[in-house]
């Protein structure tokens, strides 16, 4: 039943019942009828009250009968409110999870856009600094004669200068292009002040395109320790008599240098290249031209003591293997 029909029906029903109640009250008043030993006038009043109650009861009964929402509201309102409260409590963690997922999606979309820009830049050759690339590697120690903050500021200034030359070489005047978090710099100071020798390696956070205004970076600190000693044999490799052409010998030397670099990296070196004394390679070639049917053990021997950030320089030595 529609709302308007229900209202009209209730008005008509109320009018009929009230008319009937008034008529009954009038009849009882004239007949001087008495209920429960009440005076006729009070009896008529009681009948009128009962009639009004009947109107309300019939109206409410009719509405409950035809309106499902009203029935639910009257008899199940408490349960519904309780369930609603429980549902709201359950929604709280879901909303938090949704916010986390939305933030994660936004972050991934940002990364994807950056990746797309990097791919485009890579194709056009415009990436000048790669993600994780070292911008400067510098030694530092807690020297009482030199203020620690001054040392750190100088290292950051040099890193900024070198970065500017790479990213915006056309601008000659100094520009603050390198961005480092303040708490990262403070953590460096806390570590260095404990004493000892250290190496600071400032790296780029992401790929940087030529002409960008800012380069985000983070510092890594490593103990500045001895990596190799002078005259130390860092790595070895076997060169058989069957591997004597130029390409095979060069491949063996390259493999020896790669093994040497891997070993120095394992010890904590920050260098990305092993420097080889060229004269020692020439000595090997002269020897191989004279003695072709011998097996050799090639050795990468350090020419000097090198620390964490210092270049590793080696010479090639070889020994014949007795069969």
According to CATH, what is the class of the largest domain?
Alpha Beta
Tell me the total number of β-strands.
12
**Average pLDDT for all residues:** 81
CATH topology of the largest domain: D-amino Acid Aminotransferase, Chain A, domain 1
State the separation between the terminal residues, measured CA to CA. 110 Å
From the coordinates shown, what is the CATH architecture of the largest domain? Answer: 2-Layer Sandwich
Return the structural class: alpha+beta
Strand order of the largest sheet: 2-4-6-3
Principal-axis shape equals rod-shaped
Quickly count the helices: 8
Biggest pleated sheet? 4 strands, mixed
**SSE run:** HHHHEEHEHEEEEEHEHEEE
Q: What percentage of residues falls in helices of 4 or more residues? A: 55-70%
**How many discrete domains?**
3
Strand content: 15-25%
Rg, rounded, reads: 46 Å
Question: Could you list the spans in which at least 5 consecutive residues all have pLDDT below 50?
Answer: none
């Amino acid at each position: 039943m529609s709302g308007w029909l229900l209202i009209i029906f209730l008005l008509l029903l109320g009018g009929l019942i009230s008319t009937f109640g008034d008529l009954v009250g009038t009849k009882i008043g004239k007949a001087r009828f008495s209920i429960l030993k009440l005076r006729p006038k009070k009896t008529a009043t009681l009948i009128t009250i009962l009639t009004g109650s009947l109107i309300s009861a019939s109206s409410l009964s009719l509405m409950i009968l035809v309106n499902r929402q009203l029935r639910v509201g009257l008899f199940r309102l408490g349960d519904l409110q309780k369930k609603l409260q429980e549902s709201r409590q359950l929604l709280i963690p879901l909303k938090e999870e949704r916010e986390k997922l939305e933030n994660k999606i936004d972050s991934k979309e940002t990364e994807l856009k950056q990746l797309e820009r990097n791919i485009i830049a890579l194709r056009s050759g415009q990436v000048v600094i790669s993600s994780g690339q070292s911008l400067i590697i510098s030694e530092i120690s807690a020297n009482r004669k030199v203020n620690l903050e001054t040392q750190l500021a100088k290292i950051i200034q040099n890193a900024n200068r070198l970065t500017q030359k790479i990213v915006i070489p056309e601008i000659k005047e100094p520009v603050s292009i390198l961005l480092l978090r303040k708490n990262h710099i403070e953590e460096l100071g806390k570590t260095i002040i404990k004493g000892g020798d250290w190496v600071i390696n400032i790296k780029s956070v992401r790929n940087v395109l030529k002409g960008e205004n800012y380069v985000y970076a983070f510092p890594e600190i490593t103990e500045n320790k001895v990596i190799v000693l002078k005259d130390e044999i860092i790595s070895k490799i076997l060169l058989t008599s069957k591997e004597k052409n130029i390409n095979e010998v060069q491949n063996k030397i390259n493999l020896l240098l790669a093994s040497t670099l891997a070993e120095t990296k394992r010890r904590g070196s920050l260098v990305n290249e092993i420097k080889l004394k060229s004269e020692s390679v020439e000595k090997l070639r002269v020897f191989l031209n004279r003695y072709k049917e011998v097996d050799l053990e090639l050795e990468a021997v350090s020419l000097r003591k090198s620390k964490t950030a210092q270049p590793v320089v080696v010479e090639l030595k070889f020994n014949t293997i007795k069969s």
